[in-house]
Amino acid sequence: MIRRIDHIGIAVRDLEAAVRAYSEGLGLSCDHRETVEDQKVRTAFLPVGESRVELLESLSPDGPIGKFVEKRGEGIHHICFEVADVRSALAACEKAGLALIDREPRPGAHGKLVAFVHPKSLNGVLIELSQERP
Q1: 3-state class (DSSP) for residue 3
Q2: b or e along 105-115 (b: 16 or more beta carbons within 10 Å of the residue's beta carbon)?
Q3: Is the pLDDT of residue 134 over 80?
Q4: Nearest to 59 by CA among 45, 74, 33, 40
């Protein structure tokens, strides 16, 4: 079901400052920026091998990232796994007894289909499942 780690999402207060820190401090380069309106977030992606770091800045205090940063501070928000078929992956997760945040995939960054598995099912880690659109 899982092909690889697509990215690790890191919630930040200031996207520009975070991109500078990762670029200057670690030598990573940002290759893609995107605003995902329905998630109220601005993103920046920094490739690392076959995976990426996704930096996420909230556009609104009531967005998922805004709430996360307010409650927990900056840091790792989620791990995203690439799957061949997100609907099949969701069905397998549900069959295994995992709690789903999304029952149906929704549009995500890079034009992908994404869905989330609740952190209470996987040791406190929010999992994103991501599929390239055909």
Answers
A1: strand
A2: beebbbebbbb
A3: no
A4: 40
DSSP letter (8 states) at residue 100: B
List, in sequence order, every residue forming a beta bridge with 124; answer none if it has no partner. none
pLDDT in tens, 24-50: 999 999 999 999 998 999 999 999 999
Closest CA to 39 of 78, 92, 86, 91: 78
- Mean pLDDT over each residue of the chain, to the nearest integer: 96
Residue 1 pLDDT class (50, 70, 90 cuts): confident
Show the CA angle centred on residue 60, arms to residues 55 and 65, nearest 5°: 40
pTM exceeds 0.85, yes or no: yes
Q: Report helix, strand or coil for 70.
A: helix
Determine the 3-state secondary structure of 134 from DSSP: coil
| Cα separation, 96 vs 3, whole angstroms | 18
Residue identified by tokens 């309106």 is 37
51-58 vs 2-12, strand pairing mode: parallel
User: What would the pLDDT profile of 3-19 be if each residue is shown by its tens digit?
Assistant: 999 999 999 999 999 99
Of 27, 130, 21, residue with least CA distance to 83: 130
